[in-house]
Design goal:
14 strands, Spore Coat Polysaccharide Biosynthesis Protein SpsA, Chain A, seven-stranded mixed sheet, 273 residues, alpha/beta
């Protein structure tokens, strides 16, 4: 690997110091391979954000290095997974996810190219669907899986009373994306968040010139088949826990040993007003 410096963003918030220490200890062997910037949300912003999108954007803007890995508090990581993430980013994936966006590796260059996560989504819900469709629209390859261990026995509070409230974000999602039987239309442009402008700088063409096209994406590994993994209650229905993969809205993917979804064309018709 050519990358020698990485930022690791741990998303655990206040009162979860034990989670932060557990994740850091599991990832400590990485210090043999990389110079690490530990970007801890519990230090930077321990209180809830207004949206998961704001959490992601703040993680990117506050990270020291170009290559960034972000972990939800419920991820139980293995350091080899992060070595794999960085390796795949080097080979041309624009985003690499070991448990969807809960365990994701990206570069700042991706945000320079396609913009920030949409903070008009409230709490937690639909912002990840939005991110994947924007990658498809930009013709950028993503590696997306459920390979890692994810603890479903508890849930972190994300800023909306009562937990994640997808219903609050749903109206914006369906205003921004219009669906027909065979096509999806992007109707709204991305917001230009002035508070994040200082990230922009020079484009890193050494990264973006290596990006693979969307057709090289690998989507659906491990979706719906992690029934016996640590962190999933024994009496739970794995299909209910995982839902459908984020890409099912526009792409055929492997899910629980079946092919779900359908391939749809995405067209940019965003409002320029």
């Amino acid at each position: 690997m050519q990358v020698k410096q990485i930022s690791i963003c741990l998303h655990a918030q206040e009162k979860l110091e034990h989670i932060v220490e557990k994740q850091k200890n599991l990832l400590k062997p990485l210090e043999k391979f990389f110079e690490i910037d530990w970007n801890l949300r519990i230090v930077r912003h321990p209180k809830p954000y207004d949206s998961y999108s704001e959490l992601v954007n703040d993680s990117i803007i506050s990270s020291k290095y170009e290559h960034i890995v972000m972990l939800n508090a419920r991820v139980i990581p293995n350091y080899r997974e992060i070595i794999d993430i960085i390796s795949m980013l080097e080979t041309g994936y624009a985003a690499v996810c070991k448990y969807s966006v809960a365990y994701m590796g990206v570069t700042k260059e991706l945000f320079r190219k396609i913009g920030w996560w949409d903070e008009r989504y409230i709490g937690g819900g639909y912002e990840d669907d939005d991110f994947y469709m924007r990658l498809r629209l930009a013709d950028l390859a993503v590696y997306d899986s459920h390979e890692a261990i994810y603890d479903y026995t508890w849930k972190q509070y994300h800023g909306v009373e009562g937990g994640d409230k997808c219903s609050l974000s749903e109206p914006h999602f369906f205003k921004k994306w219009k669906f027909t039987e065979k096509k999806i239309f992007k109707m709204l442009k991305e917001e230009d968040y002035k508070k994040y402008e200082f990230l922009i700088g020079d484009n890193n063409t050494q990264i973006s010139s290596k990006w693979l096209p969307w057709e090289k994406s690998n989507i659906g590994t491990g979706y719906g088949i992690n029934k016996n993994k640590e962190g999933i209650p024994s009496n739970s229905n794995v299909l209910e826990l995982h839902g459908f993969p984020r890409s099912y809205r526009f792409q055929k993917v492997s899910y629980a040993d079946k092919i779900v979804g359908e391939n749809k064309e995405i067209i940019n018709c965003e409002d320029t007003e």
